[in-house]
Amino acid sequence: MDEHRDGAVETSLERVDRALLRLRRMWDAPAGIEHEGALVEGSTLLVCLAVEEGLAGAAEVGVVEVAAALGVTHSTASRLVTRAVAAGMVARRPSSTDPRRTSLTPTAAGRRLVAASRAFRTARLAALLAGWPDRDVAALADLLTRFAAAAAGPRP
């Protein structure tokens, strides 16, 4: 048992749950993102991030991998990829290994979008964590990385 809240004892798991609910709004993708003079859909950024992350661990990334990364159905991922292609952020090419699949790569504009969004997020984190000792920031990074890996794994 942990600290008291409103006279009741709160467990660590309840504290984690409450904290995650409060953080959810901070990381929700906005409907649109101003980027290089244009409004880009938030889902397009998510597709670009999924493609970039997927390419770090695989030779090719297709709609199947985007669907898995975003936790959506194949048909939803296909629509999101089509929008990202139309926005000029992702290029679609025939797969070099399977003629039934397409391979996705970020365009130069998509790479700039990912870099700008990452810079924005890390600047926001730097401001939020200003004054924290480096060891605490490192511990937070380690614990969140471990938690995210567990959350991405198979559900119990």
Kindly provide the radius of gyration, computed on alpha-carbon positions and rounded to a whole number of angstroms.
19 Å
Structural class of the secondary structure composition?
alpha+beta
Number of strands: 6
| Number of helices in the DSSP assignment | 6
Q: On the 0-100 scale, what is the average pLDDT?
A: 88
Low-confidence stretches are: none
The residue fraction in helices comes out at 55-70%
Q: What letter string, H or E per element, gives the SSE order?
A: EEHEEHHHEEHH
Which overall shape is indicated by the principal axes computed on the Cα atoms?
globular
First-residue to last-residue Cα separation: 24 Å
Notes on the protein architecture:
With 156 residues, this protein is of the alpha+beta class. The chain has helices at 12-27, 42-57, 63-70, 74-86, 108-128, 134-152; strands spanning 4-5, 8-9, 32-35, 38-41, 90-94, 102-106. A two-stranded antiparallel sheet has the order 1-2. Strands 3-4 form a two-stranded antiparallel sheet. A hairpin with a 2-residue loop joins strand 3 (32-35) and strand 4. The chain is globular, with a radius of gyration of 19 Å. It starts with a strand and ends with a helix.
